[in-house]
Design a protein that fits this description.
By secondary structure, the chain is an all-alpha fold. About 70% of the residues lie in helices and about 0% in strands. The chain has one domain. Helix 1 runs antiparallel to helix 2. The longest helix has about 35 residues. The two termini are about 15 Å apart. The model has no long low-confidence stretch (mean pLDDT about 85).
């Protein structure tokens, strides 16, 4: 179980870093590299930002649960 949680934590950590870097900040961030800096009149970028926010929150929640679960499991041994 500890091995599974450790692997899940590693994947969630890397994914969380990528998702945070993809967010549009004051400077544009890495999202400009993937076409996020192009403004469109359709307003599709707002939907993408909302979905990116949701994915980041879900990934952060998985990361936090893994940290707590690992802490509890390692404390018992």
């Amino acid at each position: 179980m500890v091995t599974f949680l450790s692997i899940l934590l590693s994947i969630a950590s890397i994914l969380l870093i990528v998702l945070v870097l993809l967010h549009r900040g004051k400077g544009g961030g890495l999202s400009n590299l993937f076409g996020g800096g192009v403004s469109s009149s359709l307003g599709g970028s707002a939907v993408v930002e909302k979905n990116l926010d949701r994915l980041t929150i879900i990934c952060g929640a998985v990361w936090a649960v893994c940290i707590v679960a690992l802490g509890l499991l390692l404390k018992q041994t």
